[in-house]
Amino acid sequence: MLKETLTIDLVTTDLPGRDKNEVIRAMLDLLCNSGKVKDPEQALRDLLDHEAAMSTGMENGIAIPHAKTDAVDEMIAAVGVSRRKIEFENLDRKPSRIFIMTLSPRRGTGPHVQFLAGISRLLKDAGVRKKILKAKDKSELLQILTG
User: What is the CATH number of domain 2-139?
Assistant: First the structure.
């Protein structure tokens, strides 16, 4: 599912932003580059509403901001690596540097769950996380993510 979902335009090794909201906006900008976000403002509202209800900061420096929204017709995803450590209210109380964002249509959950399962399996491996953080450019990052 990662190969079908991620393209060179949907990954970055130089994610801008100094805090949670700036990172969410930068990740949304990546998704908007796909041309598949019909209403960026609605998508941002849905992302921020979801984040306010429950932080998507995980463990091991990973955050997965996501939302169900009417702003997309199909599940889309992006991956970004920040040079900065960003406080994201992570479960382990450590900052994040690896960000995975998904937007899914309000109806259905299949592709969203499949994508998150695939990326979770990959990111469980500390060696893979280290390679992601050391990726020199987006081509290298995409290769690590999609094999």
Answer: 3.40.930.10
